[in-house]
Design brief:
There is one protein chain. The protein has about 475 residues and is α+β, with helices and mostly antiparallel strands. Helices cover about 40% and strands about 25% of the residues. The protein is built from 14 helices and 17 strands. It has helices at about 1-55, 85-100, 105-120, 130-140, 145-150, 155-160, 170-175, 195-200, 290-295, 310-325, 350-355, 355-360, 370-375, 435-470, and strands spanning about 55-65, 75-80, 80-85, 160-165, 170, 175-180, 185-190, 220-225, 230-235, 240-245, 260-265, 270-280, 305, 305-310, 390-400, 410-415, 420-430. Strands 1, 4, 5, 8, 12, 15, 16 and 17 form an 8-stranded mixed beta sheet that branches. Strand 4 and strand 5 (about 170) form a beta hairpin. Helix 1 (about 1-55) runs antiparallel to helix 14 (about 435-470) and helix 2 packs across helix 3. The longest helix is centred in the N-terminal third of the chain and has 53 residues, at about 1-55. It starts with a helix and ends with a helix.
C-alpha cells in the first residue's frame, strides 16, 4: 500500500515537472520572439537613420522646360591676345626716356617683362639685372604695376568696332568695360561684381546692371572686333585674335576654378557660341543639415574677400592666401591687391616657381594621389564647397572663315542661347520630419504588432493554465 502511494507521488511530481516545463516553454518562445523583433527594429531604425544622415539631400530634375529668360545672361570677356599695345608702349617709352634719359630701344624691349606678369612667364635665361634695372626705373617714376599695365592695354573703344544686344545696335563702350580677369585687363560685358578696380575707375553715373537674354542669335550679343596685328608686342600664345571667356556674371572671371569657359576667336573668322545653361536651386530646408553632408553652401552662409560666397571666389581666396604665404604678393590680375601687395617684376621668379601649383587644385579624393602630386597642387576642396544655388553655362562653339579682304583684320563673335528652355534641378532633403515619422512609424508598427501577438498568446496560455489549476 505504501509502495503504491510512493509511486503515485512520484508520478504526480513527474507530471507537475512536465507541466512546469511546458509552461516555461510556452512563455519563453513569445518573449524570445518579442526580444528578436525588438532588436531587429532597433537595428533597422539605427541603420535607416545613419543612412539618412550620410545622404540627407537629393538632387533631381525639377523641370526640363525652365525658360532661359529667368536666368542671367552669362558674363562675357573679350581679351585681346596682344597684351601690350605697340602704340601705347611707344608713347610710354618716350615719356620714360624724357624723364630718365634712358635708351629708347632698351626701354621698348623691356616692356616684354611686363607681359610676363600676365602669365608668370620666367626662366633662368632671362637677365635678372635687366629686369631689376627696369623695375628700378619704374619705381623712380612712381609707375605702379597695375596702372601701367592698364595704360599699355589696347582700350575697348579701339578693339570693339560694332556691338548689337538683343537685336539693337548699341554703343560698345556703354555695355563693355575694361575689367580685370585672370588674363589681365579685358573688355567685359555683364560682369556685376563690385571689385576695387571697378570702383576706383568707374564714372559717377555708371552702375552695374545684370542683363537677361532671350533665345536665338538675333536676341543675343554680337560683336565685331578690329584686330590690329601691327600693334602686337607680347602675346601669351602664338595666335592672333581674342580669347572669349564665358562665366557666371557674379563671379570673378577665373579659369582655375572650373566655372569659366575659353574659346579662341581667330582673326578673319565669324564665331558662333551657343550657350546651354543648367540651373540648380536648393530649398531652404537643406540649410538645416551639416555642410559636409549636403556638400554645398548658400551665398549668405560664408563670405569671401569678394563678398557673398561662390565656389569660384572661394578658390580665388585660397590661391591668394597661398600667394601671400609663398611670394608675399598678389598678381595684378586679381583685384584684391593694392600698391603695397601687388607683385612687381622682382617677384617673377617666385611667381614662376609656383605657377603650376596655383593653376591646379587637389581633387576631393586627394588621398589617392602621391605626395609629389599634392605638393604641385593647391588643396582648397575642404573649404570650397559648390554653391547650393547656381547656374552653369556650357558652350557649343563653331567658326567659319571670312573670305573677304575687306574683313581681313576683323573678327565677328555671336553669343546667344541655343534653346528657349533648359534643365532646372532641385536639391531637396530626402525626407522631411513628417515623412521620417511616417517611415519609422511603419517599422515600429510591424514590430509592435508581432510583439503584441506573442505577448497576447503568452497571456492567454497563462490564463488557461490558471483556470485549469483552480478547477482542479
Amino acid at each position: 500500500m505504501e509502495s503504491c502511494n510512493l509511486v503515485q507521488i512520484m508520478l504526480k511530481l513527474k507530471n507537475n515537472n512536465h507541466k512546469a516545463a511546458t509552461f516555461r516553454n510556452k512563455l519563453l518562445w513569445p518573449f524570445l520572439v518579442y526580444a528578436s523583433f525588438t532588436g531587429f527594429t532597433f537595428f533597422l531604425v539605427v541603420s535607416l537613420w545613419n543612412r539618412f544622415l550620410e545622404n540627407p539631400t537629393l538632387t533631381s530634375l525639377e523641370s526640363s522646360l525652365y525658360s532661359v529668360s529667368n536666368i542671367p545672361f552669362p558674363g562675357v570677356s573679350l581679351c585681346n591676345l596682344n597684351k601690350i599695345s605697340k602704340k601705347r608702349a611707344q608713347e610710354m617709352a618716350e615719356y620714360i626716356v624724357k624723364k630718365t634719359g634712358q635708351n629708347y630701344t632698351t626701354i621698348m624691349s623691356s616692356f616684354k617683362f611686363l607681359g610676363f606678369l600676365h602669365d608668370s612667364n620666367y626662366d633662368n635665361s632671362y637677365n635678372v639685372d635687366e629686369i631689376d634695372e627696369f623695375q628700378n626705373i619704374l619705381d623712380s617714376l612712381q609707375l605702379k604695376t597695375t596702372g601701367l599695365i592698364r595704360n599699355l592695354t589696347t582700350p575697348c573703344n579701339d578693339l570693339l568696332q560694332l556691338c548689337r544686344w538683343k537685336g539693337h545696335k548699341v554703343n560698345c563702350t556703354n555695355i563693355f568695360h575694361m575689367r580685370l580677369t585672370f588674363e589681365g585687363y579685358c573688355c567685359v560685358f555683364n560682369y556685376v561684381k563690385n571689385t576695387s578696380e571697378w570702383w576706383m575707375r568707374r564714372a559717377r553715373d555708371e552702375t552695374l546692371v545684370l542683363e537677361y537674354g532671350s533665345p536665338g542669335i538675333s536676341n543675343g550679343l554680337s560683336v565685331e572686333l578690329n584686330i590690329d596685328i601691327d600693334d602686337y608686342i607680347y602675346t601669351m600664345m602664338s595666335s592672333t585674335g581674342v580669347n572669349v571667356h564665358i562665366f557666371i556674371p557674379s563671379d570673378y572671371p577665373d579659369k582655375s576654378s572650373g566655372d569659366l569657359i575659353e574659346n579662341i576667336a581667330d582673326i578673319g573668322t565669324e564665331n558662333f557660341l551657343e550657350i546651354i545653361p543648367t540651373t540648380v536651386r536648393a530649398v531652404r530646408d537643406v540649410m538645416n543639415y551639416a555642410v559636409d553632408k549636403r556638400e554645398c553652401l548658400f551665398e549668405v552662409e560664408q563670405r569671401t574677400q569678394f563678398g557673398l560666397y561662390s565656389q569660384s571666389d572661394c578658390f580665388v581666396d585660397c590661391r591668394v592666401r597661398s600667394m601671400m604665404t609663398l611670394c608675399e604678393c598678389i598678381p595684378f590680375t586679381v583685384p584684391l591687391s593694392d600698391d603695397s601687395t601687388v607683385c612687381t617684376l622682382r617677384d617673377l621668379p617666385c611667381l614662376a616657381r609656383y605657377k603650376s601649383k596655383w593653376s591646379s587644385l587637389v581633387p576631393d579624393k586627394w588621398h589617392e594621389y602621391n605626395i609629389k602630386e599634392l605638393e604641385d597642387a593647391l588643396l582648397c576642396s575642404k573649404t570650397c564647397y559648390p554653391s547650393c544655388d547656381s547656374t552653369l553655362y556650357r558652350v557649343s562653339a563653331s567658326a567659319v572663315q571670312i573670305n573677304n579682304s575687306r574683313f581681313s583684320n576683323s573678327t565677328s563673335i555671336h553669343i546667344f542661347y541655343r534653346d528657349r528652355y533648359h534643365n532646372l534641378y532641385k536639391q531637396d532633403v530626402v525626407y522631411y520630419w513628417f515623412e521620417i515619422l511616417s517611415n519609422y512609424g511603419g517599422v515600429f508598427g510591424i514590430s509592435l504588432g508581432v510583439s503584441l501577438i506573442s505577448i497576447i498568446e503568452c497571456l492567454i496560455y497563462s490564463f488557461k493554465l490558471l483556470i485549469g489549476k483552480y478547477r482542479l
